[in-house]
Amino acid sequence: MSNPIMAQSSRSCGFLPQALEKEHNVTARETAIKEGILYIPVIFHIVYNGEVQNISNEQIHSQLQVINEDFSLQNENATDIVEVFKPLAADVGVQFYQANIEGGITRTATSHGPFFDDDLHLTSQGGRDASDTQQYLNIWVADLAAGVFGYGTSPGTESYRDGVAINFEHFGKGGTAVAPYDQGRTLTHEIGHWLGLLHPWGNGGCDSDDGLSDTPAQEIPLAGCQLTSESCTSLDMAQNFMNTSEDACLALFTAQQRDFMRSTLINDRPEVYTLDGIITGVTQKEPNQSRMTLYPNPVTDTPYIYANILEEMEDEVDINIIDAMGRNVRQVTNKSVEGQLLIDLSGLDNGWYTTQLSDSQSIYSSKIYLKIE
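Predicted structure:
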């Protein structure tokens, strides 16, 4: 692996910073949706030279889970945020789901690569043409040039290459992902660029920054997990997703980063999101699971799971299994349920699912992980 600082700083080498320079006018529409969750359909373009690079659906779903957790402050390591920065951590209120065209995933075999130019975004040059970049976030996963983890384009980029590119070795969890950048945070970082954010150090040096006051000035990119670094007389925010620390270190967006990204969506990418509720598999911060427990979880031996209904529910009850695309792939309906229900998961792909218990009054949900060898 190349020098960590050089390699990490190239996570964003395709980013164009002009988005930060213009005003983001507050519109009536922005005010109306200020507190709502914005849902973005994504298409993953897997461009592979050899089967090793043809990453699995399971690895793709793990990546989708990571960005949904990171953009909703549901990431497990949020509890590890340095105390002084915890009050600044924000739920961005953005969620991602696989688009309903081409199953949200395309696969293109190529003899080309490594990629680091427009060739990745053009089928005629051994890559893959983008789907409508005004309607979808396009994510290309391929063998990128040495030392390049990924790059994201800013609003206003030519449509044929607008989106994010990620090296297949730094995408999602498991499979081809290489430590210590194997927790899916490269994509979190690059989506931040796609939504207009800069690195905390701006153009470098303590007199340049990202234009946001709640991300401290920082002189240079950070390697490893330097939680006590003070490069510009104040504590560096090493755990910020727009920094270049190792994946396990990264843990937060700030409130001003949240506001800027949402403003970018509303003003600069108005057709790429919906307000329609999409089930993404990320539970609420304080999920109400008092009426249902699931066993076993993860599901590893046989494709069955027991749902234990812990108290009687008077209305007709539905238990739905929802996949990463928001599709209802299993349903069990009973009346006045209390006790144990067996749910058959046969035929489902390995990966994350949401189990949703609902009656006429309430919805309770939790995640399950299916991994049958």
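Summary: The chain has two domains: 4-268, 292-370.
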